[in-house]
Amino acid sequence: MRLDRVLVGRGFGSRKEVEQLIRRGRVRLGGEPVKDPSFHVAEDAAIVVEGVRSEPEVLPILVAWHKPVGVLTTLRDPWGREGVDDVLPEPWRGKLHPVGRLDLDTSGLLLFSSDGALTQRLLSPRHAVPRTYVATVEADPPADLIERVAAGVETSEGVFTGVISAIEGREVTITVTEGKHRMVRRMLHNAGASVAELRRVAYGDVALDELAPGAWRVVR
After folding, report:
1. What's the CATH superfamily of 130-203?
2. What b-and-e string marks burial along 14-34, b requiring 16 or more CB atoms within 10 Å of the CB?
3. Span(s) in the chain for CATH 3.30.70.1560
4. What mean pLDDT comes out for the span 132-155?
5. Are the CB atoms for 3 and 38 separated by under 8 Å?
């Protein structure tokens, strides 16, 4: 990869600023100055810029975050409301992207990725990656709620199925394999169990566990 592009990617300035550093002999490889911006180097090369050693930043591939209620799952909001880029640790801002979304009024596990291919695999309906939620419903759920959801619930977005693994009072644990907008809320409402609160507790093999609201954990 071109030396100037590597340095721009590492935050040493604009393309023009980086070119000036290189041509002035301020950049060294293996102890020797390199004055050609188009000189090809490995992306993970150790480069010394004005006496400071630079190595590539190692980004996490997958990060788990406990999203609180009231935070938008967008990187930037035109209305100035808090979005997920505002709550990312500073070194990760603009470099990690959310894997899908959670509604404004839904809390729980939200994954962030630096790998586009992994993100597509996690989101693709073809791979049917399970997402598990715990819903607190407004009233005692129907006795046959498990069967209704398993058979398929019609919504304005189509017919969706899910697996309810537990019902404890008004808490319903449900797993689905798609992530359409407000799908779990629509399904449960149309099946006779309107949702008061919703929290995602697992995505694939990543679980929320004891992660506190607003806290992060590097998965890989």
Report:
1. Alpha-L RNA-binding motif (3.30.70.1560)
2. eeeebbebbeeebbbeeeeeb
3. 130-203
4. 97
5. yes
193 vs 114 pLDDT, higher one: 193
Average pLDDT, the chain: 91
Residue 98 buriedness (CB in 10 A; 0-12 / 13-18 / 19+): buried
Q: Give catalytic residue positions.
A: 103
Instruction: Write down the CATH number for the domain with range 3-54.
Output: 3.10.290.10
Residues of CATH 3.30.70.580 domain(s) within the chain? 59-126+208-220
Mean pLDDT of 26-39: 93
Structure tokens of 122?
Answer: 């996690």
Q: What's the pLDDT at 132?
A: 98
Segment 150-169 shows an average pLDDT of 96
**Which residue spans of the chain are classified as CATH 3.10.290.10?**
3-54
Is the whole-model pTM more than 0.85?
Answer: no
What fold does the segment set 59-126+208-220 form as a domain?
Alpha-Beta Plaits (3.30.70)
155 has a pLDDT exceeding 90 = yes
Residue 152, pLDDT score: 97
